[in-house]
């Protein structure tokens, strides 16, 4: 049960926020809840209910969804057990009014069990724990995510019949940084930038990317929990905006093979700060700091074990092509887009030095991936792990760098068998997450066998389109 003193304090804050928002004409709220896969679930409710100090009941089903909203049965929850409730507890710091709706606000919720303990499967709780560990060391992580996304012209008949390959791209050309793509994306981009600014999320840039109907946008850096919240919201709100414009946004990692498309990445950029200074930069050495090297060493050392968190679906592994700048091994390098961890100093290193984690696509749970990066880096600090020298140019295949699993089944098996993963995330989460991925792989391979599909052929299947095109 929730503590009475906590409920009293939250009730006072809730009453204040209710008065404030009501004074702005807000009557409704969009409750936003990142599920196990990072998809923003939620409800439209009266504002008062959204701000309730004791939260609102939510089915534990949101923690056992596979793709296309199919359910798994795990030790955590199951249909047989009746999918019991947990609580969606509003985080008042995330309350924002949505100016384009006028009478509606949005608030992100944490998931807690009915005894008041954090839900062990909830990525946002996991990230909060990692942030607390950094804080104990006097460090603050700041982060941002860079999205790539496909946009298509909506056709309800084609979408309902799952004929996604027949949809027309929004933009005819295959180009990058174009400001002459037809039809113009400028009105959509401006509305998205303006809409996100209205909820306190700064989109720094929006441009065409190298791909048919592909675009890219990047968020401004923030403290890492806010950055993950912003990323989850930006993805949801962009999908919603596209729907309003008669478009379909897809974050499915790979749609085309052999065309040179860059595929939908979500590069995670991270810096560490202490006492207002960038702790990754050593001004005297003119290079990455000792702390930065150890943090990078931990990220690289844990990356093979944690890989399934960064590539969580069947289609995710089709992005693995170093020549398309999507890493195949746990490598690092100085300003090299082929590496899994790209170190960037920029023109003003004291401000701009950062690590760019390039493994994830747009199909991840951003709270879990950010937590995994931080927790890996913390292990590097504790063990003083050194990643060794940067490889020479075009040497990302350096044998020092461990290859990453090439498919979902192998990555899930590595994660499940990893003592390091279990020590980091706990047995319950590791077993739960691995089972979801085992079930996903089973569904895929059974479909392939039934439909006589040769999985040795590197081609995106109909099953992947049906499970990821809209859903990812």
Structure characteristics:
single chain; 472 residues; alpha+beta; Ubiquitin-like (UB roll); Creatine Kinase, Chain A, domain 2; 10-stranded mixed beta sheet; 6-stranded mixed beta sheet; 13 helices; 18 strands; 35% helix
Describe this structure in words.
The strands form 3 sheets. Strands 7, 8, 9, 10, 11, 12, 13, 16, 17 and 18 form a 10-stranded mixed sheet that branches. Helix content is 35%, strand content 20%. The longest helix has 24 residues. With 472 residues, it is an alpha+beta fold. It has 2 domains: 118 residues, Ubiquitin-like (UB roll); 337 residues, Creatine Kinase, Chain A, domain 2 (2-Layer Sandwich).
Give the integer mean of the pLDDT values. Answer: 95
CATH topology of the largest domain: Creatine Kinase, Chain A, domain 2
**Overall geometric form:** globular
Number of strands: 18
- Main beta sheet: 10 strands, mixed
Percent helix range: 25-40%
Give a quick precis of the structure.
The protein is α+β, with helices and mostly antiparallel strands. It is 35% helix and 20% strand.
What secondary-structure arrangement, pairings included, does this model have?
Layout: H1 4-23, E1 28-34, E2 40-46, H2 47-50, E3 56-59, E4 85-90, E5 96-97, E6 104-112, H3 123-136, E7 140-153, H4 156-160, H5 186-197, E8 203-208, E9 214-219, E10 222-223, H6 224-244, E11 247-250, E12 266-274, E13 277-278, E14 281-282, E15 287-288, H7 290-310, E16 332-334, E17 341-344, H8 349-352, E18 354-357, H9 366-383, H10 408-417, H11 419-425, H12 427-450, H13 462-468
Parallel strand pairs: 1-6, 16-17
Antiparallel strand pairs: 1-2, 3-4, 4-6, 5-6, 7-9, 7-10, 7-11, 7-12, 8-9, 12-13, 12-18, 14-15, 17-18
Helix pairs in contact: 3-9, 7-9, 7-10, 10-12, 11-12
